[in-house]
Amino acid sequence: MRAIALSLLFTVSCAAQITSRFNDTIAAMAAALAESNAPGFLAPFDKRMPGYDDLQSNVEALLTQAEVHSGVNQITEDGNEVTVDWELHIRTRGNDSQMEPRRATVKLRFEQQGKKWRIVGLAPVDLFAPPKPAP
């Protein structure tokens, strides 16, 4: 429980730095990772997005195998495209000594569908892949 609280604190402090009109969506995605909530992370995506099946498989495996602490800082917003610096700290379940840090510049493309904004593009998808096996 303490790890989740620390993760949420990390997520909220980093998410607060996002100034995009999409900040609530991105912050909710980071919080969903900390809560091991794959459906919550995937909720804003258009399921027809290229690579969605890979993203879904990666996120579900990641959250089954590990606890994830996530932080996001916005770099740029250009129309409906947002570029963020996304940092993950991945701790394999059952192995507190194995922590895998990851960091990537992530591009998200949003599209308004009806009254909702949906994510129709995300790269790189492999940032959210399950942890690598220990050597």
Rg, rounded, reads 14 Å
The overall pLDDT average reads: 86
Task: Report the principal-axis shape.
Answer: globular
Low-confidence stretches: 1-18
Supply the CATH class. Answer: Alpha Beta
Classify the secondary structure makeup into a structural class: alpha+beta
Supply the number of structural domains.
Answer: 1
CATH architecture: Roll
Query: Percent of residues in beta strands?
Result: 35-45%
Sheet with the most strands: spatial strand order? 1-2-3-4
Main sheet specs? 4 strands, antiparallel
Q: Spell the H/E element sequence.
A: HHHHEEEE
Query: In the CATH scheme, what's the topology name?
Result: Nuclear Transport Factor 2, Chain: A
Distance between the termini: 29 Å
Number of helices: 4
Tally of strands? 4
State the helical fraction.
25-40%
What does this structure look like?
- 33% of the residues lie in helices and 36% in strands.
- The chain has 135 residues and is an alpha+beta fold.
- A hairpin with a 2-residue loop joins β1 and β2 (81-92).
- α1 packs antiparallel against α2.
In short:
This protein has helices at residues 2-15, 23-34, 38-42, 52-65; strands at residues 66-78, 81-92, 99-113, 116-123.
